[in-house]
Write a structure and sequence with these properties.
245 residues; three-stranded mixed β-sheet; 10 helices
Length: 245
């Protein structure tokens, strides 16, 4: 009888020990879940906020500011830019911008077939990367970009996505946005850009540190002519309707 009682007590004691051992694991899981939910809530809050409030800075702008000491940028609304600039950038970077929900399957397939030597990111994906994430290729960043892009497409208008892109994209070393680029390259405001000037700025993307719109190489000049034709085409066939008044 005494042995049975002792055995029962021992069993209860070992059960309590097992429960005590599980508590740290349960605590860790709980806090990991809270951390994940907090990060998700933070991204959602920022996406909603930036649908109406202009992003004050991005990781890329901050990094370049630290590296160079200062950067050149000034936010301007889309209606204060020459419409041909918006069309040129869309023609250069994402001709199907008005017809996809954040991802261009054809562009992705073409990038895969090219062995990764060309990009397949849409303007929406580039906005997510520039505004909410960081540069460089890594699986964590790509996963976050893939998850956040549909949220941006759902909550922002196409016009807003393009407006943000044209204000945060790097268009020369340390030069961010259409206003700074127009004045740096051509000495005019973004509202006064000609079709040729707009095409040259668009041709600099996505490699502004090695290309110049002020002293364009033969490649940039050829690319600019293609972009000018593309800008006229998307205006004629309706692929610019989602961001033009």
């Amino acid at each position: 009888m005494a042995k049975a009682v002792a055995k029962k007590k021992k069993s209860k004691s070992s059960g309590k020990t097992a429960k005590r051992k599980l508590k740290p694991l349960q605590w860790l899981r709980r806090w990991v879940l809270r951390l994940v939910l907090g990060v998700v809530a933070g991204f959602v809050a920022l996406i909603l906020l930036y649908s109406v409030v202009n992003p004050p800075i991005t990781h890329t702008i901050w990094a370049e500011q630290r590296r160079l000491g200062e950067v050149d940028r000034m936010w301007v609304p889309l209606e204060e830019m020459a419409p041909v600039l918006a069309r040129s950038v869309v023609a250069a970077e994402d001709a199907q911008f008005c017809r996809h929900w954040g991802f261009d399957a054809r562009a992705i397939q073409a990038a895969i077939e090219a062995g990764g030597t060309r990009g397949g990111s849409t303007i929406s994906q580039q906005v997510v990367k520039n505004v909410f994430l960081w540069q460089g290729r890594s699986w964590p960043r790509k996963v976050l970009e893939t998850l956040l892009t549909p949220l941006v497409e759902i909550t922002w208008s196409k016009r807003r996505i393009l407006e943000v892109y044209l204000n945060v994209a790097e268009m020369d070393e340390g030069v961010f946005g259409a206003e700074a680029a127009a004045r740096r390259y051509f000495g005019v405001g973004p509202e006064a850009l000609t079709a040729q000037q707009a095409a040259l700025i668009a041709a600099v993307l996505p490699n502004p540190k090695e290309r110049s719109a002020r002293q364009p190489s033969s490649f940039v000049q050829r690319r600019a002519r293609q972009i000018a034709d593309g800008a006229a085409t998307i205006r004629a066939d309706g692929r610019a309707d989602c961001f033009e008044d």
